[in-house]
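User: Predict the structure for this protein chain, please.
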Amino acid sequence: KVNKQRIPLSDNSIIEGTVGKHGLHGVEDLVHEIYTVGPHFKQASNFLWPFKLSAPRGGFKCKRHGYCEMKGGDWGNREEAMNELVSRMN
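Assistant: Here is the predicted structure, written as structure tokens:
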């Protein structure tokens, strides 16, 4: 979030210019601060925007049943198949 706009994090200078005053100078510092819930966690999490995902291409198969059930629905724990679903939603 830079000037209330979505900016892709293509360079560490974007991070350093916005949250550098809190000791976060790159992607590694940002990830470490969020992972460890450090003293500047609030500033780090407010800097990042949430992901925007659309409905998956091809739609859902069956919303009524769970993914691990015999009927093969769409809600539930996907484990290894999660990346495939997210790639369909981008």
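Residues 14 and 74 are 38 Å apart (CA to CA).
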